[in-house]
């Protein structure tokens, strides 16, 4: 007996067939030959065969893309089919399935997206409306942020209110993804429903999609795959259409697009023509080379607010830092030569200008970027440590914010920042919240 996947059918309809049944199709002989060759090769590999003939995800509904109503030619009754994208399979392997074979919960999700939302543009609130969240709200599935994640999310939100593009530089494993997702969720709750863009390595986009589903009600889609898959995403997932099938301008089905660096490098015009309200770039140290093609592609996109995430140190390279700052704020940092003349020799704590209390100037100074003494790497755990990759330095009159945190060491860093903020408030210059 052979386990068979029928042409243009889903794994839901796999069946067992005898050799005699299969040989009725003259096209099957080559497939059987390839299967037997593969089986013979597997005998030389000392591994236990999988109990499952295929990945169980392949029979789990991921998303519903379309619905079709037809009439049964025999009974005259209406029959409903849904175009189903299956988990762990690309869009191009989507199949039409009968209603009774589809998860009712997924049908409900699909139906909730059928009606186009009202067209309205909500402006970003003024900075004076920012309020710090003292405790985590309950997100989807009753998820809550940890204390240090809440602080990071508050910081991201503060910079957004203040029109400051920023870098969140936590060590790996401390929840930069969750902080970013809840940050976008807070914006979403202000009736700014995107569009938001996540750019991440291919190996992490599944995790990004899963966390969006776990923490929020936002409709996040993954834009990646073959040309056929991307065409299906554009047709079914990105825009609403009128009765004639024409796209309705300015109305998107999605709230979040998750894509890869490769898609940006591939010069996707469908992404570049969208006015993105916020972009979050994971593993942003990939932008440290100012002449890389990825940066060139990003600079052609309309990005209202930019957040960079990194857990990788800059390794004492001020040139790499300039590349990131120039992308975030090209008007503030237009010249690499001028930047290196002023900051290129920054290597030791003694070179850092003193703050108003005689200590190294930190990142909470008014209208300043802090290239802080904590957070660019594991060796930078203590605020003020001389072993950090980049010591504290105040950059002039920037609209940029830089969060440099290390998780376990964050509470100590927070106390130092809170003391600085309190001092500035007492002296009439408390423009930063920390």
Oligomer: single chain
CATH names the topology of the domain at 145-343 as Rossmann fold
Count of helical stretches: 13
Low-pLDDT residue intervals, each spanning 5 or more residues: 355-434
Rg from Cα? 26 Å
The portion of residues forming beta strands comes to 15-25%
The CATH superfamily of the domain at 145-343 is identified as Tandem AAA-ATPase domain
| Biggest pleated-sheet summary | 7 strands, parallel
Which word captures the global form?
A: globular
Report the mean per-residue pLDDT as an integer: 76
- Tell me the total number of β-strands: 18
Helix amount: 25-40%
Keywords:
434 residues, OB fold (Dihydrolipoamide Acetyltransferase, E2P), Rossmann fold, 7-stranded parallel beta sheet, 13 helices, 18 strands, disordered C terminus
Q: Can you describe what's shown?
A:
Helix content is 30%, strand content 18%. The chain is of the alpha/beta class and 434 residues long. Among the domains are: 2-43, no CATH class; 56-114, OB fold (Dihydrolipoamide Acetyltransferase, E2P) (Beta Barrel); 145-343, Tandem AAA-ATPase domain (Rossmann fold, 3-Layer(aba) Sandwich), CATH 3.40.50.10810. The strands form 6 sheets. A 7-stranded parallel β-sheet has the order 8-11-7-13-15-6-18. A 3-stranded antiparallel β-sheet has the order 3-4-5, with helices on one face. A two-stranded antiparallel ribbon has the order 1-2. Helix 5 crosses helix 6 and helix 11 (318-328) crosses helix 12 (336-343). The N and C termini lie far apart (69 Å). Residues 355-434 have low confidence and may be disordered. Its main location: nucleus.
